[in-house]
Amino acid sequence: MLGRKDTAEAVEKRMRINKYIAHAGVASRRKAEELIKEGRVTLNGKTVMELATIVKNGDIVEVNGSPIYNEEKVYYLLNKPRGVISSVSDEKNRKTVIDLMPHVKERIYPVGRLDWDTTGLLILTNDGDFTDKMIHPRNEIDKVYLARVKGIATKENLRPLTRGVVIDGKKTQPAHYNIIKVDHEKNRSVVELTIHEGRNHQVKKMFESVGLIVDKLSRTRFGTLDLTGLRPGESRRLNKKEISQLHNIAVNKVK
Ligand code: URA
Known about the structure:
Blueprint (H helix, E strand, L loop, with lengths): L3 H7 L3 E3 H7 L5 H9 L3 E3 L2 E2 L6 E3 L4 E3 L2 E2 L7 E6 L28 E2 L8 E7 L2 H8 L7 E8 L4 H9 L2 E2 L2 E2 L4 E8 L4 E8 L6 H8 L3 E10 L2 E2 L8 E3 L2 H14 L2
Parallel strand pairs: 9-15
Antiparallel strand pairs: 1-4, 2-3, 2-5, 5-6, 7-9, 7-17, 8-9, 10-14, 10-15, 11-12, 13-14, 15-16
Helix pairs in contact: 2-3
Bound molecules: uracil.
């Protein structure tokens, strides 16, 4: 007779196809739906037409013609140096964050992006659901940046950032700033900015909207994580406690 555990294991594993793709770390669930709508996903050789398609044990799912597999979920923290791009590959053969982590066997990818010239904290994982949760602005996870800007930062010129400024036709969520240093001689300032969103070049565009041009940018904190002990280019695996702390702050902030 089968015990409870044996019975559970004997039950065929079934999963909705977008969830399967997210579990495999290929894309978030929402992005997986887009891939399906674009006809880029096949199940056992046939293009998937239905978002509600179920994947069973032994099924072969391919995205853009490559088979995908579910593997153990892993989470890494990287101190990204300048001059490296935050994607898994690059058509111009530039160095990517993945090139900095040859020891990682799983197919990880960055949670959000940092620009080529931005340094600092980047999480990489193969967990699509975790990624969705970390980058969704509704979850209000603090992303803290240290920016050196050309010009003199004052409470007056930075105030609009706390209410939200319009960039690319859409208002940003209120941000928090802290003026760290003002150098009148060199006409530049250092400002810490905390935001919850991750729009394209967001910090640079936010400063630009108040007349300050960023010439150096670094992400110093992401939720409960900082870069203590990691030099530029170094990475380490996150432990279970760190991962659950990130899950907790995201969950607790959902309205
Ligand atoms: N905002 C930017 O402008 N650049 C980054 O790399 C990250 C946030």
